[in-house]
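testing teh design pipeline on a random one, pls ignore if ur not involved
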């Protein structure tokens, strides 16, 4: 987790937020959300995190979204990292969604119901 935080700070990521997921879902223990000002910065931040985690011995790493780099997700096992351009981050508003999510059902946009396990 500290390697991710350090990498984001080194890359001048903005609005870095860590959301604890324990008790909300079994997919990970933490979610880290940060913004970059351009697709180039978001892509570079994702690349740097991925390389640092691999160098630290992390296995099973996956990344999605690096082609467009509007939103890049890195699955590092116990930590999921979401890197956004600010407009995309504001649209999805994951901090609000996951900060209040519990193991119960909650309403999603469009009145669909999402089950948070």
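output:
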């Amino acid at each position: 987790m500290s390697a991710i935080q350090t990498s984001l700070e080194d890359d001048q990521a903005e609005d870095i937020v860590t959301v604890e997921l324990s008790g909300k879902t079994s997919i990970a223990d933490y979610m880290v959300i940060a913004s970059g000002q351009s697709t180039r910065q978001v892509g570079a931040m994702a690349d740097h995190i991925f390389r640092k985690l691999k160098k630290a011995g992390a296995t099973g790493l996956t990344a999605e979204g690096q082609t467009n780099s509007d939103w890049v997700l890195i699955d590092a096992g116990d930590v999921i990292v979401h890197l956004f351009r600010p407009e995309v981050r504001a649209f999805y508003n994951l901090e609000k969604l996951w900060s209040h999510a519990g193991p119960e059902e909650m309403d999603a946009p469009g009145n669909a119901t999402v089950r948070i396990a």
